[in-house]
């Protein structure tokens, strides 16, 4: 699909991007309300108020920023769709901004990583002060796996796409794996958040949870909002018709790659 | 990619399909061991032994059968890859079996639905006997949403692809949505299973969970196996190079669809 993409399709794309923003922001706000209003607020003194920093940072960093960084920058789709209606301006911006978009992608994910690490330090620090053992629950296992793989994904992305360490052939082979792993990590982050919500509810309000208290309903709604955010995000990134068509530079890379796989002699290594 | 698909790629595909089978079966076996050995076994008498039927049926139905039904039949990929090495036989079988593959896909998913409904009846029946309220937890909300959408997906699939209710144009438009929703439902089923694991552990062994008892570790490992099953499944179904190339019948459908979207006059509605 090129600049002549049906207007309706662009509207659907813009609507889905807008919907994802609303859902992502809603999940951050709901977490802040839950921890701020129902769980007494935030502090950094080893108390349960320090624990409250953990859910907020994880939803903000690993879910919203990590997910949003993918909508806005995956294969330049966002830039393409937003600027395509401006026709020529869009074309120019789209080609010139390639490297800038990659840098923005890296920065958003670095920010996501930093916020997540603050969230993890908050909970480990709280556990130490309250003498609660670490890393025994399924939530902690899934969370640790996710954050370690997220670090690996970030470093790999940096090496492959921002610093020219890898050959064009390696980069072309790695790109779909990078996109798949990015989506898988957002889904794992959402799954881990749902586990965290269930753990927190059962630790805090187990006796009253079954009577549908406001806190329980709010946390359940937060869980559903996170699920919806994940579904919209995955739909946006996996649907063929929302993919930006390759620019001439990428076309030549593709031919180069084809030559290599079909046993021809490439012009350069 | 056609029959000349690199041998290495076919080996990777076969390895991933084999890996998914091992992970899917392992998740069912681990659930059976957890419920059978650590939770006292199975019965249908309203006791907690009846509850134990619930996790087993859900992992078997909504995760293993639903997921496996997609690997084996999504876009005939499995048939194509397994038979392609047999060259001519594969070609013949691939074209002739199209409708049979669809029927198999429908039957596996019907089986998944029936097993899941048994699992849901088991837990509602147990709740009624033990006077435990229903539908208050995030696990129950996610689970109910998943099973309702799974029923809708099954009925839509039946109407669109097995009974010729929809036009070719509608079928072609719906196919990618059907594949996306199928994958989303498996991922939601896995997420809901992880919530169920966490709930069951906190209800049953909360005081000892943090001391790494065998039951807790086994249930956590089950959670990770389910996550891995989901990752391998999604990778298999979303990677371009594992997709079966369209056969002539589908090619003509695609041309027909293109004519429609570009404003031409199709031969038939």
From TrEMBL, chains A, B:
InterPro entries: CYB561/CYBRD1-like (IPR043205), Cyt_b561/ferric_Rdtase_TM (IPR006593). The chain crosses the membrane at residues 12-35, 47-65, 103-124, 144-163, 175-197, 217-237. The keyword Cell membrane does not apply. It catalyses: monodehydro-L-ascorbate radical(out) + L-ascorbate(in) = monodehydro-L-ascorbate radical(in) + L-ascorbate(out); Fe(3+)(out) + L-ascorbate(in) = monodehydro-L-ascorbate radical(in) + Fe(2+)(out) + H(+). It is a multi-pass membrane protein. Keywords: Cytoplasmic vesicle, Electron transport, Heme, Iron, Membrane, Metal-binding, Translocase, Transmembrane, Transmembrane helix, Transport. GO terms for cellular component: chromaffin granule membrane; lysosomal membrane. PROSITE patterns: CYTOCHROME_B561. Homodimer. PANTHER family: CYTOCHROME B561-RELATED (PTHR10106), TRANSMEMBRANE ASCORBATE-DEPENDENT REDUCTASE CYB561 (PTHR10106:SF14). This is Transmembrane ascorbate-dependent reductase CYB561. It comes from Dissostichus eleginoides. The lineage of its organism: Eukaryota, Metazoa, Chordata, Craniata, Vertebrata.
